[in-house]
Design goal:
By secondary structure, the protein is mostly helical. The chain has 10 helices and no strands.
């Protein structure tokens, strides 16, 4: 109920924007191929539902595998960086530096190396989502209260127990902040991978429909991508609330 109340203002603004869009297109007699009215996009969603569903399944599969692999690698590296000062000094500067590299420019090379199948899309998703999760997780693991750490050591806890009982639970809010960012970037990564080289997926459908002036289908595909991104983001929020209930706020 709280989640619905939090998103209600955004939903009302969304409906108001669609209303203005519909009225403006009718008043100024904008051509359909240039900017279709929302009502036309809804008709296209209904007419092309099975087509959109088929390509959505491809994109969701790329997002799922890419994000899963990314989270496993990111959490593993984050723990290694926070565990060892040597790994921290050797690896973390490269993680920060990698953020300045435009991932989009690497996508054509990834297609050359991994082909036009699902593997290249998964790699692009991993590259888009890996670094934000690593940075937020490392910062979270390093932000534990020193007094609490000393207390754990006084009680005889070893390093593994301190990580399991203190560092990781304390870092959960920042970890989930990174996952929420990654959940949105995963959709962007999948679409870019499909643009560069693919024969299926919503990104490929947008690329195909644009030059054919099927603008309604382009907007319908964008709407489907938005639904996927919002659903993934909301799932992350619900998972965060469920897990954080097990730990006290302090």
């Amino acid at each position: 109920m709280n989640l619905f109340r939090d998103w209600l203002p955004a939903f009302i603004l969304f409906l108001f924007g669609f209303f203005l869009w519909e009225i403006s297109v009718k008043i100024f007699d904008v051509p359909d191929w240039l900017l279709p009215a929302p009502s036309q996009i809804i008709v296209e969603l209904l007419n092309s539902f099975m087509l959109l569903l088929m390509h959505s399944q491809v994109t969701v599969k790329e997002i799922f595998f890419g994000l899963t692999i990314s989270l496993i690698l990111a959490f593993s590296l984050s723990i290694a960086i926070s565990w060892s000062s040597i790994i921290n000094k050797a690896v973390f500067p490269f993680v920060i530096t990698s953020l300045i590299i435009p991932i989009f420019t690497l996508a054509p090379l990834i297609v050359v190396w991994f082909g036009t199948g699902i593997a290249s899309k998964i790699v692009v998703v991993v590259l888009f989502t890996f670094f934000p999760v690593v940075i937020t997780t490392v910062n979270g693991l390093k932000s534990s209260d020193k007094v609490m750490v000393d207390m754990f050591k006084t009680l005889g806890a070893n390093k593994f127990q301190i990580y399991l009982k203190l560092y990781i639970p304390g870092a959960l809010p920042q970890i989930f902040s990174g996952i929420k960012v990654a959940s949105v970037l995963a959709v962007i990564g999948a679409v870019i991978g499909e643009w560069i080289g693919s024969s299926a997926g919503l990104g490929w459908l947008i690329k195909l429909s644009g030059p054919q002036f099927k603008t309604e289908r382009v907007f319908a595909s964008i709407f489907a991508l938005s639904v996927i991104a919002i659903a993934l983001y909301l799932f992350t929020i619900l998972l965060e609330k469920f897990i954080l209930k097990r730990y006290p706020k302090n």
